[in-house]
Amino acid sequence: MKNWIKHTKVLSLATLLAFGSCESLDEINNNPNGVSPSDANVNMLMPTVMVGAAKNMVNLGYQDVAGVVQHTQKDGWFSGHNSYDWGPIDWSGYFSLLRTNEFLIKRSDEVGADFHKAIGLTMKSFLFGMVTDLWGDAPYTYALQGSKDDLDYQFPIYDSQEVIYKGIIEDLKAASAIFASTSSAAVIPQYDIYFGGNATRWQKFANSLLLRYYLRVSDKMPELAKPGIEAIYNSGIYLTDASEDVVMAYLGASADDSWPSAASYDAGSNFRRLKPANTLLDPMLANKDPRVAVWFRKVHCQWVEDKTLTVAYDPYIRKNGVIQNGVVSLGDSQYLTEIAAGNKFTRHYNPDILGYKLDTREYVGLPTGLINPSAHNLNPTPGQQLENQHVSQIGDVYRLAKHDLLKSRLISTAEVSFILAEAATKGYAVGSAKTHYENGIKASLKTWGVSSGYDAFIAQPGVAFDGTLNQILTQKWIASWTSATEAWFDYRRTGLPNFQVGPASREPVMPVRFPYGNNELNFNNEEVTTAVGRLETSQYGAEIGPNNQWAKPWIIQGTNKPW
């Protein structure tokens, strides 16, 4: 993996091309001090798209979508994360990247750079896939065209999801064929921040994305999905080892090129408001999952049940068993220093006097959608301080700006293996569901540096393969940690895992899409109104109007999923 920040200076052209309007490139005035679009080097266009796509993936899958699929919960500024309290959400960041990528494709055609065109087709598929997965119908066929041939495409029509998914699949098939037959010699390796110009890696990426999207449409277009998945499986050209995961590392030199919760750039507040969700933590602990210690930290101060206590609970913490008079809690940095020095902090309570039980485990998460999450487990410092000594934080590695484990993961071998496992349960000719399922777990454990725990983990009663789709998708959901969007899309398609909303949720069911954003509502209202009219609405979100997060897009209409 190349250090992508090294390309900052050469990205200026690509950044300029990601302009906010839909103007034709032919109509842009020439800048005498810049590089003309007609002289642009296709290599220089790639990093902006690749970096932007990777950052979008993490910013969704580690942030609020992680709350949707209940990987994490927040105990401060939590309503969007825990309760799906969303307003209109714009997609301008995606279409900005898509405009730059469209220029990459067009410029590649102009200069005969077929391999670069295939890269552009792959990234186009990835980005449009995210747009339609998240929002539903969207501009596609006539998007990115601007004004040309006396036609104005500044307010393009919205294509149906069916059209978009079919287009994505065709573009990926075309890209895969080019990668298989065309030299990558014209690719300057340091500009290809994913693979350094490795043609085989690019073809595996394209084919693995095909597996993702064939499975996505498998209930709506089985006649397309089944032969497509079987053909890729028979080719053997897809991700098969965790070392092949499509990832982007972080440099950590500034807030913009660092992991999103880097404490060095936000004083740790973003890091500290994220807590493990019990939905995820409880089954991991029950199955002695070796990833727990990587992803989460033990509580700073552990509750101890003590029925000899004559009061409901200790007023102060105990250090190595000794009451610290006057000390209700310590700050995060103090706890880190003291615990690293070998000290153990506890607090005793008597459930008979208190009237209910507290969570006394070493690892403690937050239940889903609490009305007051900061007060959970009798936190002595509730509110926006984000200091809950009795609930686990996520792992210390997520405080850092960069680390070998801190990578944006666009698609993984674990995901591909679980895709094939599910396909096998559908009766597709793709080998053994059990083998693919176990390969998915192996790949995920390898990704997080705990491969040595595989034998003990796979032997756990809740993990040993039982042949059910629920088990496959549960392990796939766990493995999607920090890349949670795929877990959301799987849940939407299958209803698995069986997520339950919490008491603070606006509705008693999970959301299934992002509402269209204000830019579209204000400037392309006729088209967005037509697209909203194609959503399947219900009593959920009715007070918001039809453009809400509970209105079902085409991909799940008629499936009775997820609710």
Please give the CATH class of the domain at 4-244: Mainly Alpha
Helix fraction bin: 40-55%
List the uncertain runs. Answer: 1-35
The proportion of residues in beta strands is: 5-15%
CATH topology of the domain at 4-244: Serine Threonine Protein Phosphatase 5, Tetratricopeptide repeat
Which structural class best describes the helix and strand composition?
Answer: alpha+beta
Biggest beta sheet attributes = 4 strands, mixed
Number of strands: 12
Can you describe this structure?
This protein is of the alpha+beta class. Among the domains are: 4-244, Serine Threonine Protein Phosphatase 5, Tetratricopeptide repeat (Alpha Horseshoe), CATH 1.25.40; 298-392, no CATH class. It contains 22 helices and twelve strands. The protein has helices at residues 12-17, 42-61, 64-68, 79-82, 92-111, 114-134, 161-181, 199-216, 222-235, 263-266, 269-273, 278-286, 292-295, 332-340, 351-354, 413-425, 433-447, 454-458, 469-479, 485-494, 518-523, 525-533; strands spanning 72-74, 138-139, 147-148, 151-152, 158-159, 246-249, 274-276, 302-305, 318-319, 322-323, 345-349, 407-411. Strands 8-11-9-10 form a four-stranded mixed beta sheet. Helix 16 (413-425) runs antiparallel to helix 19 and helix 17 runs parallel beside helix 19 (469-479). The chain is globular. The two termini are 41 Å apart. It holds the Pfam family SusD-like_2. This is SusD/RagB family nutrient-binding outer membrane lipoprotein. Keywords: Lipoprotein.
